[in-house]
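User: Hi! I'm a student and our assignment asks us to look at how structure tokens line up with a sequence. Could you show me two examples?

Assistant: Happy to help. In each example below, the sequence comes first and the structure tokens follow. Example one:
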Amino acid sequence: MLNIERKNLPLVSVVITTKNEEKNIETCIKSIKCQTYPNIEIIVVDNNSDDKTKVLAKKYTKLVFNKGPERSTQRNYGMIDKSGGKYVMFIDCDMVLSPNLIKECAKEIEKNKEVALHIPEIVLGSKFWSKVRCFERTFYNGTVIDGARFFDKRIFKKVGGFDESMSGPEDWDIDKKMKQQGQIGLINARENIGKWPLRTFISKRGINPTKFGVSIYHNEAEFDLKKYLQKKGYYATSFDNYINKWGKSDPDIKKQLGLVYRYFGVFVEKGKWLKLCAHPFLALGMMYLRLSVGMKFLLRKKPGEAENPYKKPRV
């Protein structure tokens, strides 16, 4: 019966990009194995890990490859060159998918014929600054600050995939290319986790999964401001590339990098200002983070000058 059901449903290829992720890889893959959607292939594209990442990944899938040097190249390699699905999805290794996520994404994109989908993301963590990051992320769902993760492969391939000259704004860039081909939707569906094996894993990291719809849970380490700003500073080195490609007057770029929308509009539009009033301390913490990131953007270095936060230091 399962084979018949699988045959009648479009294949979804889930691409996981990795770099020394032995601590996260198994939980990430288990969340895919626990999906209620039966027709999935798992592809791991590793970037020269020197730990057990690839060994652990091969316990769950034969589709484990090596490609670098940056995540855009890894994603394109998995999603265009190695995937067999009608639909392709990329995730990072420190992400966990709620159990009905792929089923709801496939149903949504098949029904409404969107070219891609945004997916709500919940940042895990029990400490204050992690909760601030989780709070902030909820304001971005479905906006120009968000980035699609689930794609119609035919269209994704047609637009050339991710721009491999960028590291950071390539998520915004692919959205802009996909929107030239059609509509990007936002998955918004209820989640019934039932006896989901990863329920305790999520709960121990400060989040009650029964309170959220279908989501990606981002299992970041507890918030570290220095590392967070270092990462944002590295991504900012590609912003000039992105701006030059689309032009300073582009309406999306004005929102993504402009003061008015990025620091005000996205947090108050469509009644979202009520959340700010309901959680004043989280709101203040969020504004502090945004101002810190803004300074990193204004003081950004040229490509190649900023230290890659994902690069393992030499001993």
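Example two works the same way, sequence first and then tokens:
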Amino acid sequence: MYFSLPQEYRQASQDELRDRIQAARQKLGNKLCILTHHYQRVEIVELGDHSGDSYGLSKIAASQQDVEVIMFCGVHFMAESADILTSDKQMVYLPNPLAGCPMADMAEMADVLEAWKYLEPFGGADRIMPMSYMNTTAGLKAFTGKNGGVICTSSNASAAYEYAFKRREKIFFFPDENLGFNTGIKYGLKPEEMVLWDFSRERGGLSEEAIDRAKVILWKGHCHVHTTFTVEQVKQVRAEHPDARVIVHPECTPDVVQAADGNGSTKFIVEYCEKAPSGSTIAIGTEINLINRMAQTYPDKKIFELSGQTCPVCANMYRTTLGDLAFALENHQDIKPIRVNEETRGDALVALEKMLEIAS
């Protein structure tokens, strides 16, 4: 996909772009809704009608029945989900169409279908429930729905595990091995009850005995942002800030999650910062834009990034600029909205509606 923002939007000042965005918003009135993910730039979040994590924004998108134009400041899989959950009369736009997700790309349809075919002799959909993390393409969400599975997010992963194990013996979880493993531990599973399917190896690199014994089959995939954090960084923070609380996202590696004081979705992290007493010291292991925004929002608390040296930025979330949003708002009638084909949409909707139902 090729996208080049017109020069006038690249050269305009931040103030001019804000003015143009507000003018376009006023013109569209109640027909417009701007959704912004927590990892977006501060200046983008400030202009959103609603901010949240992928689960929260999905719920909001599903509820916007009277809105005609939805500007989703996030990444591609989020905008796809919003399109699936809204009516045909509503248009969902991704201000920067190049905003993808490397983790989602780690689970390609052909690889997942090959793995599922191999798992069929072990019971297939009768014994195994496919569980697709929100960070997947619409096609894989459709595969999940078609096989009686469910979508999960970091907000509802524990509830999704409970839902799955009441109905099937095993879970086939993709694409984030760390969220899948950490959720399994939280649910009460033992590490040896979870195995890793390596899509680059024949038969996933697993023996028949390992698959038969496993309760969760994890896909080999990860978030490059959250795997930058280490146990050594947690130890250093504790040494330098004895009163600090370390809070991380469950996409971090299991040893980091275990070493932290708490872990949870971006919504959990936002609420933790909000509720923490004045004077609290909080080291956070997640995306840098969210951390910076929390530090600005709560100046009475010492909030900083866990590693202290890396810059854990989600480059794809960071792609969306004020120029992108201004261009999309002023030209939405001439640009292509995010559209999921009807066949894919139908099966994916089944799984997404289960996701919303589970956590309600």
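Here is something you could point out in your write-up. The CA atoms of residues 63 and 337 lie 19 Å apart.
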